[in-house]
Amino acid sequence: MRAHLKAAYQIRTASSHAVRICIAATFLLLAPSVRAESLRCSLLASAAKRTLGPINTDDLIRIRDFGGAGLGARSEPFALSPDGRSAALQLRQADPSSDTYCTAMVIVPITGSGTPSVFDDAGDIVAATSSRYGISGLPLGIPKQAIIRWSPDGRFLAYTKFFSDRSEIWIHDFALHVSSRKLVSDVDIERLAWSADGARLLYESRPGLTAARKAIATEGLSGFRFDERFWPLSSDIPMPPADVPLVARAVNPSSGAPESLQEADKVALHPDPDRPASSTALARLGNTMAWSAPSDDGLFSPMMLHVQVGPNELPCTYDACSGVTNLWWITHELLVFQRRAGIDGSLTQFYAWRPRRDRPRLLLATTDALFGCREGGEGIICAQETSVSPRHLVAVSARNGSRRVIFDPNPEYPAAEAGIVRRLEWANAAGVKTYGDLVLPRQYRGDRRLPLVIVQYESRGFLRGGTGDEYPIQALAAHGFAVLSFNRTPWLPEVDHPVGEDEYLRLSMEDFADRRNILSSLTSIIGQLDRDGVIDPARVAITGQSDGAVTATFALTNTRLFAAAILSTCCEDAAMLQQSAEGYEDFYVRMGYPANREAGREFWRIGSLAEADGTKPVPLLIQASSSEFRMGLATYRELMRRGWPIDMYVYPDEGHVKLHPAHRSAVYRRSLQWLDFWFNDRKSANPVDSPQYERWEALRHSVRVPGN
Questions:
Q1: What's the pLDDT score for residue 6?
Q2: Architecture of 418-702 per CATH?
Q3: What is the pLDDT of residues 79-91, one digit of tens each?
Q4: 197 within 8 A of 153, measured Cβ to Cβ
Q5: Per-residue confidence band for 140, with pLDDT thresholds at 50, 70 and 90
Q6: CA dihedral 444, 56, 622, 656 (to 10 degrees)
Q7: DSSP state string for 85-128
Q8: Please, what is the end-to-end C-alpha distance for the chain in angstroms?
Q9: DSSP 8-state secondary structure symbol assigned to residue 255
Q10: Domain boundaries along the sequence of the chain
């Protein structure tokens, strides 16, 4: 459950000081989808439909989104045209009342006075999948991101549409204003490109998955042998293997007919085959080249900037030359690069540098998240999120770093009604620094102590619902809560050599070093906010999804700081590994988890809420997906028998991250109503389900809960 959703589960993150391992991605199966039903999104603002007042859960659910879930510098939330004058993107908007999404393919003018336009729907919203532990098809739950590619001459746009049973490739002809389908595939299209001359459309997929699935179905007629292919948490059918190969193919862009793949097409599908080793970003212009690469093989190695002109490499020895995530040649002499700086990469910076002539010049430094950037005619075009504003497109000037909004898909979002946001930085007992954003009610004047809600575990960009998007930060603030959007504290092993993934995980688990580090940071900031008179220390709640849920249960097991909790993923205990895949169990044991129950008695006494002694009973709400709830049953039943005030809900057809609009709305509202009930003794006139308060009243009277 030590997952990290940022940038679609990276091992090495954009920050050189934090590692998030994609373990909780393994709690997933059976990718859900929510049909768009050819519902095409409108770009027209709907402000007239909104009642004036504070930000509510519906405002957050109905935000128009584009791009993937991550904020990585190398993500692709949009595609820039070859001439840099237009951007194409896939838009989606949830409607909880009908449990559907509308979708749209949108063209956004970068220059001039043109207006964005919708030219097609974008298919269904389908959960992305991953391969790990030797099996494939594990859904992440986050929406699968469309692949969008301009033709070399900019006259056509190719893009994918995804459905629960197929993938499609479409092409839009800008001269004829027509979109047409060119390919239907029963497996995912994983890569898309044009040949260099624009004569062929190239793609990669795994057609062998079709045969693998048929073989599994046939095997079932005589019974499946239980082996490493199973994911028992959510399925009684084996999964296809993870090593089904990618196959490259080509089609005619006009007819969709198969074409022969040329040798040069391999480079089009996989550009820069001769790029410097380990480089993560690369920019070429004529005989000049710049790239970023780690300084050594360790997980925490800074990304260093390198520049080469002709055969000569020019060293960049300035402090600004580390942490580089993206770069562009504006002219043969001017390089603009993007980097992460500050505590755990909390700042985004842009620099301009003329190698051989001067030192890098700071253009922009901000706590806003800018990502997926591309060089265009109007400067550097980026997706941007601020703490109070949803995702939008901006142009960053390569001259002075000024920003201009190009496209805001949510002009009616009431950002002016947002709560007060304060960026906090602090150190824990070991001196490790971290940061978070404290969100306070808009009208708060420091005249009273507020109940505090901890939301985890990345605090970059738009403060919407935390990792997994389940805890409505602004709506909670509007209801009188202080909300700490907590950025997971980085943990570095005390060794004098580069550390690889396996060693890092093993070291992090020694005496729960990583979890104790995080808990120390939470203890420090809660104490500081108490001393400042901002919060009521008797009304502090912790929430968590994925890795955040592990932090939450560890905190409930090892402290008495918290008076309520909500978990989206539950829970680690001795039964966890027995319910999982063999590859998953092997991974955890290598990391330092006990191989059997006898060896793990002391381990689970510290690391499991169900098996710890003397824990403080607090109101605990579990909102689990259908593919993960079984993992929480042992903890739920044990705590219920102990008399904890605990309630649990299961959301059908969901993976690790919940996708259905109706479910997302229910999760938002129930989280808010649970905390309001226990901390403020308030009941909503519109409960998620009618009997909930009767049950919660019974829970309240069955257990004496400290702080109430």
A1: 32
A2: 3-Layer(aba) Sandwich (3.40)
A3: 999 999 999 999 9
A4: no
A5: confident
A6: -120
A7: SEEEEEEEEEETTTTEEEEEEEEEESSTT---EEEE--B-EEEE
A8: 31
A9: T
A10: 418-702
Residue 295 predicted with pLDDT over 50: yes
Distances (CA, A) of 606 to 67, 456, 601: 40, 21, 9
Burial of 78 (0-12, 13-18, 19+ CB in 10 A): buried
d(CA 677, CA 214): 51
**In Å, what is the CA distance from 687 to each residue of 293, 410, 472, 530?**
52, 28, 16, 31
Token couple for 65:
């989104």
Helix (H) or strand (E) holding 246: none
Q: How far is CA 175 from CA 83, 155, 172, in A?
A: 16, 7, 9
Within a 13 Å sphere around the CA of 435, how many CA atoms are in the beta-carbon half? Answer: 18
Tell me how crowded residue 257 is: count the other CB atoms within 10 A of its CB: 11
Residues 370/383, Cβ–Cβ less than 8 Å: yes
Q: What whole-number distance in Å separates Cα of residue 498 and Cα of residue 547?
A: 24
For the full predicted model, state whether its pTM sits above 0.85: yes
CA distances from 436 to 199, 404, 424, 461, 567 (A): 50, 27, 5, 12, 20
Q: Which amino acid is it at 652?
A: P
Q: What is the dihedral of CA 215, 216, 220, 222, to 10 degrees?
A: 50
Sign of the dihedral through C-alpha 303, 309, 315, 319: negative
Q: How far apart are CA 658 and CA 35, in angstroms?
A: 15
Q: Name residue 482's beta-bridge partners.
A: 452
Mean of pLDDT values over 627-638: 93
